């Protein structure tokens, strides 16, 4: 049986009411609950068409075009042309939700529509957020919609969008908020792409960080901080140029993903992939519920700060998978664009974008303090990550495991080639300038090949494939490899009869093998932290 959502879209494509009713009977049969749900959805759609002038037309592709035009950067906003909005809405007196008269549509998202509206009683403009018709009866969406209202209602800060009312008009729940007449930061950045003064950006983001800290103080984590969720109003009555970020004041909005730290969310919701890929923290990208918290918002603030200063995001990618891979393997110290910034500001961004939450700023207020210190030419509190810590973080990257496997395979192929390569040359008809008993040499080298080099070669393949315990096995056997070669050199006894009369050749050959063995052992040691960090996701 199809889902209710699929049946709803199929019924929306049927224009004739009688034919639609007959198809509804076929889809539902004796399932009265399913029939009532679909009938309610269709009734709400018809009202929405009358109310919003055909905004929710029932065309599934059209809705997805509006909401998913850029899935990596957009989860809630999509500005539409004012003239088109006026045509869609029609007469203000007819298009009304609760006490508010709809003026125009200003944004569409995965969960709802945002309208500019007017409060006739107080003669003021406001923003009205209403869920989309096709998701309005979903219990999960309703819970998330009102969770946003509850989260925002606990907040009162000059750099947060104020909640004016939460209510419902029949089947239409809504959230009324203050109106920010300069759009959002994402739109502003597209309209003003030029270089931005670092001090102005630092003060602007310090205000945003203050607002985020206010949320954290009230046990709320935003989890979806991005430029399109930072609205703008003129600072000091618009006395400064609004083409400069210094003339604008931020207003953080959209708490649809907010997590109440003092409330245990249900496991299904809390383990979902939540956030906007280009701005989410590594723990969000990996759905590590226990690590998601205030430091996740600090990471997102670092991404926005990076984008404001440089004009690009630190973790770009053509696909969602590529973006998430870059976020999971975040290495902010390697960002070439950061070199153009002042050293202190570079340190601030690097501190925000650390993979481990414990390595970031401990709070948004600490980030705000450092941003204001930088703007005032005072010393910042954060210090660059130490060389030892950077090395440890480098060792934690999953590619160290792959590199350990590749090095092992190369070394073991080289060693096996050194042992038995001359047999291949003889088979090809080449004449060698030294004499030896080939059978005796083959027998002498066979135990080493079967007990040491071949197992290491096989384990190298397993390491590249990230098999469980492969790094531990490779480290242990590599240590045995190093120890055995070192003992041969210390004792001065050749492992092969061909070297009995040539100790210098024996010494050089074994010293060369010892160097290779040491390199192999070292790359396995370096890969141990990454293997430990990735143990839970290794494939058996």
User: Helix- and strand-based class?
Assistant: alpha+beta
The domain tally reads 3
Rg, Å, rounded: 32 Å
SS strand fraction: 5-15%
Note the gap between the termini.
36 Å
Model regions low in confidence, pLDDT < 50 over at least 5 residues: 54-69, 74-94, 263-272, 536-540
**CATH H-level name of the largest domain... which superfamily?**
Phosphorylase Kinase, domain 1
Overall geometry comes to elongated
Give the beta-strand count. Answer: 10
Number of helices: 19
Going across the major beta sheet, what is the strand order?
A: 1-2-3-4-6-5
Order of helices and strands: HHHHHEEEEHEEHHEEEEHHHHHHHHHHH
CATH architecture of the largest domain: 2-Layer Sandwich
**Could you describe the largest sheet, including whether it forms a barrel?**
6 strands, antiparallel
Provide the helix percentage.
40-55%
- Which fold name is given in CATH as the topology of the largest domain? Phosphorylase Kinase, domain 1
Subunit organisation of the chains: single chain
CATH class of the largest domain: Alpha Beta
Overall pLDDT metric = 77
Notable characteristics:
19 helices; single chain; alpha+beta; six-stranded antiparallel beta sheet; 10 strands; Transferase(Phosphotransferase), domain 1; two-stranded antiparallel sheet; disordered C terminus; 3 domains; 540 residues
Question: How would you portray this structure in words?
Answer:
Strand 2 and strand 3 (112-119) form a beta hairpin. The strands form three sheets. The protein has a six-stranded antiparallel sheet with strand order 1-2-3-4-6-5. Strands 7-10 form a two-stranded antiparallel sheet. It has helices spanning 4-12, 17-28, 32-52, 60-67, 82-89, 139-153, 185-191, 198-217, 267-270, 282-285, 294-310, 320-328, 343-352, 364-375, 387-395, 399-427, 438-464, 470-491, 503-533, and strands spanning 96-97, 100-108, 112-119, 124-131, 163-169, 172-178, 220-221, 230-234, 248-252, 259-260. The protein has 19 helices and ten strands. It folds into three domains: 4-178, Phosphorylase Kinase, domain 1, CATH 3.30.200; 198-225 and 240-384, Transferase(Phosphotransferase) domain 1 (Transferase(Phosphotransferase), domain 1, Orthogonal Bundle); 399-537, no CATH class. The chain has 540 residues and is an alpha+beta fold. Helix 16 (399-427) packs antiparallel against helix 19 (503-533).
């Amino acid at each position: 049986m199809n889902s209710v959502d699929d049946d709803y879209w199929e019924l929306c494509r049927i224009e004739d009411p009688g034919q639609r009713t007959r198809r509804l009977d076929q889809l539902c049969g004796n399932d009265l609950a399913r029939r009532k749900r679909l009938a309610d959805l269709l009734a709400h759609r018809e009202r929405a068409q009358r109310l919003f002038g055909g905004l929710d037309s029932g065309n599934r592709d059209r809705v997805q075009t509006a909401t998913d035009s850029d899935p990596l950067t957009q989860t809630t906003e999509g500005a539409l042309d004012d003239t088109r909005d006026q045509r869609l809405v029609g007469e203000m007196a007819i298009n009304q939700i609760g006490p508010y008269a709809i003026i125009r549509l200003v944004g569409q998202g995965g969960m709802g529509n945002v309208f500019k509206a007017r409060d006739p009683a107080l003669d003021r403009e406001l923003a009205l957020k209403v869920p989309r018709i096709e998701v309005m009866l979903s219990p999960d969406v309703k819970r998330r919609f009102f969770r946003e209202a509850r989260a925002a209602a606990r907040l009162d800060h000059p750099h947060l969008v104020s909640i004016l009312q939460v209510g419902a008009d029949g089947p239409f729940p809504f959230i009324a908020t203050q109106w920010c007449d300069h759009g959002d930061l994402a739109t502003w950045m597209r309209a003003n792409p030029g270089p931005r003064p670092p001090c102005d950006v630092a003060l602007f983001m310090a205000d945003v960080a203050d607002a985020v800290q206010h949320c954290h103080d009230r046990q709320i984590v935003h989890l979806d901080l991005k430029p399109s969720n930072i609205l703008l109003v003129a600072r000091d009555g618009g006395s400064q140029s609004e083409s400069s970020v210094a003339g604008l004041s931020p207003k953080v909005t959209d708490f649809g993903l907010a997590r109440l730290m003092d409330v245990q969310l249900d496991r299904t919701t809390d383990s979902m992939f939540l956030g906007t890929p280009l701005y989410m923290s590594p723990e969000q990208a990996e759905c590590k519920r226990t690590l998601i918290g205030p430091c996740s918002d600090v990471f997102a603030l670092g991404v926005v700060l990076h984008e404001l200063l440089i004009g690009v995001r630190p973790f770009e990618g053509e696909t969602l998978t590529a973006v998430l891979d870059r976020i999971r393997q975040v290495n902010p110290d390697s960002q070439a664009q950061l070199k153009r910034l002042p050293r202190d500001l570079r340190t601030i961004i690097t501190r925000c974008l650390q993979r481990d939450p414990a390595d970031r700023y401990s709070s948004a207020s600490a980030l705000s303090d450092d941003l204001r210190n930088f703007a005032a030419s005072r010393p910042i509190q954060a210090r660059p990550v130490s060389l030892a810590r950077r090395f440890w973080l480098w060792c934690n990257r999953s590619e160290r495991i792959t590199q350990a496997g590749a090095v092992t395979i190369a070394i073991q192929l080289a060693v096996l080639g050194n042992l038995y390569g001359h047999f291949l040359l003889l088979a090809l008809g080449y004449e060698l300038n030294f004499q030896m008993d080939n059978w005796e040499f083959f027998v002498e080298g066979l135990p080493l090949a079967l007990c040491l080099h071949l197992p290491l070669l096989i384990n190298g393949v397993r390491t590249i494939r990230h098999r469980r315990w492969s790094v531990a096995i490779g480290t242990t056997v590599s240590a045995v490899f190093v120890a055995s070669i070192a003992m041969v050199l210390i004792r001065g006894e050749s492992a092969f009869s061909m070297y009995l009369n040539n100790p210098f050749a024996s010494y050089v050959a074994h010293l060369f093998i010892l160097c290779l063995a040491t390199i192999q052992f070292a790359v396995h040691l370096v890969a141990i932290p990454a293997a430990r960090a990735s143990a839970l996701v290794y494939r058996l």
